């Protein structure tokens, strides 16, 4: 069994989270510049077995795609070219940044650390992956 990778794609930075090999636990992996994200994931997939990429799907409150979706789609097209054998699924990412900030506050992180946008992006990716895993378990 390979890992599942979740991606919180943004125009500047991309947060990445990964499961363990049993696909039970979601952990933050890294935040990379968005222009390097597809290559980073391609190299990671050469080192580790990856079963699936889960990409955060930006939606508005009325369930329509947000303006950021055009950038996510361009990224996904590039990812499909550099790693064509790994399937890609979308997962609703609404409220993940807000939840990430809440987690940081509840975790007692100081204000300066909470302003670290790379950390917010990585935590958001973990939340996307946890949500995906929970939904997957409910379907079993």
Can you offer a commentary on this structure?
Helix 1 (37-47) packs parallel to helix 2. Helix 2 (69-82) links the parallel strand 4 (50-57) and strand 5. This protein has helices at residues 37-47, 69-82, 96-106, 111-114, 117-139; strands at residues 3-9, 13-19, 26-33, 50-57, 88-92. The chain is globular, with a radius of gyration of 14 Å. With 140 residues, the protein is α/β, with parallel strands linked by helices. It has a five-stranded mixed sheet, sandwiched between helices.
Offer a quick outline of the entry.
By secondary structure, this protein is an alpha/beta fold.
Uncertain regions spanning at least 5 consecutive residues: none
C-alpha end-to-end distance? 17 Å
SS-derived structural category: alpha/beta
The largest β sheet comes out as: 5 strands, mixed
Helix count from the secondary structure assignment? 5
- Strand percentage lies at 25-35%
**Fraction of helical residues:** 40-55%
**How many strands in all?**
5
Overall pLDDT, averaged?
87
Strand order of the largest sheet: 3-2-1-4-5
Q: Characterize the overall form.
A: globular
SSE topology string = EEEHEHEHHH
**Rg from Cα:** 14 Å
């Amino acid at each position: 069994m390979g890992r599942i990778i979740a991606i919180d794609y943004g125009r500047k930075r991309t947060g990445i989270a990964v499961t363990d090999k049993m696909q039970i636990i979601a952990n933050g992996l890294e935040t990379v510049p968005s222009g390097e994200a597809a290559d980073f994931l391609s190299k990671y997939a050469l080192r580790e077995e990856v079963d699936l990429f889960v990409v955060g799907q930006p939606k508005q409150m009325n369930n329509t795609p947000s303006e950021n979706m055009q950038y996510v789609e361009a990224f996904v097209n590039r990812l499909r070219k550099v790693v064509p054998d790994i399937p890609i699924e979308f997962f609703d990412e609404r409220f993940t940044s807000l939840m990430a900030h809440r987690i940081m506050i509840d975790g007692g992180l100081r204000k300066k650390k909470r302003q670290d946008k790379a950390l917010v992006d990585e935590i958001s990716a973990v939340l996307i992956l946890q949500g995906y895993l929970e939904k997957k378990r409910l379907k079993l």
